[in-house]
Amino acid sequence: xxxxxxxxxxxxxxxxxxxxxxxxxxxxxxxxxxxxxxxxxxxxxxxxxxxxxxxxxxxxxxxxxxxxxxxxxxxxxxxxxxxxxxxxxxxxxxxxxxxxxxxxxxxxxxxxxx
Amino acid sequence: xxxxxxxxxxxxxxxxxxxxxxxxxxxxxxxxxxxxxxxxxxxxxxxxxxxxxxxxxxxxxxxxxxxxxxxxxxxxxxxxxxxxxxxxxxxxxxxxxxxxxxxxxxxxxxxxxxxxx
Lengths: 114, 117
Fold this sequence. Notes:
Chain A is mostly beta strands. Chain A has strands spanning 5-7, 10-14, 19-24, 30-38, 45-50, 56-59, 62-67, 72-77, 86-94, 103-104, 108-113. Chain B starts with a strand and ends with a strand. In chain B, the strands form two sheets. In chain B, strands 2, 4, 5, 6, 9, 10 and 11 form a seven-stranded mixed sheet that branches.
């Protein structure tokens, strides 16, 4: 059974704080690691697709790093804003036997307060 | 470019009935995957269809089935509904023209919220 874990489960921060979350995944049969943001009543929206060990991706105030050898990825949000409040999901895509199947973690729920 | 469209958005069914959910992928996308989310659980993979063929199946009972049409639209069917089937069902479409494009992101619809009473 393939295990993708995220921590923390939830997080409350103040506006302007920087924060980070962790995603751990199998280090074998790795193909890609996806990060999604899911706001209430909306569709999950892709943030990053990461494939190479040492990858770093950035979109505005959000960035992510990838370590495939040890099986973890970090998502960072700099200067959190209320509109960053959402659930952040990571998803593992396997090299073989999976096609486009994504195995998701249970997510980190972020609440940014004024 | 229109996004992924799922219909209906909400559905209430009685235990024992069957239900069909529909998903229209982004134009040009040939892969459609289905996921189930129940309270406290992450998104669980149901199955993936590509070019009208089921390519992968998750660990769900045979009551869950799906199909894909030549225009890439997909339907999933749940027969003999149980209370535990109450969930948000999401579909995702992906562009896959060759193995090298497997790293493209999946685009999700807004989901169908199924309640079984």
